[in-house]
Design a protein that fits this description.
This protein is mainly beta. It has a single domain (about 1-15, about 25-180), classed as Beta Barrel (Lipocalin). It has helices at about 1-15, 75-85, and strands at about 25-40, 40-55, 60-65, 70-75, 95-100, 115-125, 125-140, 140-150, 170-180. An 8-stranded antiparallel β-barrel has the order 1-2-3-5-6-7-8-9. A hairpin with a 2-residue loop joins strand 7 (about 125-140) and strand 8 (about 140-150).
Length: about 180
């Protein structure tokens, strides 16, 4: 976890280095992230529009930082239980992802482009390698990234009893919709 925090810090310093004369970084401070749970008591979802992310297209690097406490649930009782009991938000307030886009974007192509992003997802004090599919679309001077992927709670030592999940699997669907704007130099 210390390595991941150090990597995140170095990444932000590197991206925002004033000596970089060719600015290829984009950022978002209001990315949308949704969590979808298929529970025995029914469908449950949580959303936030406060995800922070930086994208460097020259280096094909991407970073996400999401404050767990920013998620709002469709059921306030489950929200409190999720944050305090399962995610232990006081102990693990943020989820991070540091990754590299495996395909080069074609900036002449305005159609959606499918990519894979390999990196490390840090959640609940546990870092795991992940390969995440995404669709990137160039929209004028902005870049939009959409992604849907599954995360097993147990992979990050989040102890949600499997009996709570309708299919017995402790999987949570994560959906991202982030629009990046180019950083000013």
């Amino acid at each position: 976890m210390k390595f991941l925090l150090l990597s995140v810090s170095v990444f932000f310093l590197w991206i925002n280095n004033p000596q970089n004369t060719f600015n290829t970084s984009y950022s978002s401070k209001n990315g949308k992230v949704g969590l979808f749970f298929d529970l025995t008591v029914g469908q449950m979802n949580a959303t936030t529009n406060q995800a922070q992310s930086t994208l460097d297209i020259q280096r094909d690097a991407i970073l996400f930082n999401i404050k767990v406490d920013a998620f709002k649930f469709s059921n306030p009782i489950l929200e409190q239980q999720f944050k305090e009991v399962y995610m232990e938000v006081d102990k693990y307030p943020e989820t991070t992802f540091v990754g590299k886009i495996k395909q080069k974007l074609d900036f002449k192509n305005k159609a959606p482009q499918k990519v894979m992003v390999e990196g490390t997802l840090g959640m609940h004090g546990v870092s795991r390698p992940r390969t995440i599919p995404a669709t990137m679309t160039l929209e004028g001077d902005k870049i939009r990234v959409i992604s849907d992927f599954m995360v097993k709670a147990s992979d990050h030592k989040i102890d949600i009893p499997s009996a709570f999940f309708a299919n017995g699997k402790d999987e949570i669907k994560v959906s991202l919709d982030i629009t990046y704007t180019k950083n000013a130099k």
